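**Paired protein data**
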Amino acid sequence: MTHMKTTVVGSYPIPEWFKTNPSEEALLDALATVLRAQEDAGIDVISDGELSRWDAQRQAQVGMVERFVREMAGVQAEATCSQREAFRALPGNAYRPSPGRWMRACSI
């Protein structure tokens, strides 16, 4: 009988207790919890569930932009007010009832 190896893909749910009290020490505990849960479930190839992308200073997970793109030379991570307004003015964006997090309103 052939055994197909199992793994998880993507973000593992962040433990609620970690979200309410994030710290470097709690991150280590959360990582151990996530790894143990996968081991207990019989997962063959375990991962950190992307918890290692946690930023203790921001108390939030760091996304792909923050982790990889910001480090690239010549890449602008934050849009200026004029860039955001130009984006909003594009005909294909009329469906957006409210701006996303990165599209916050510009102060005038």
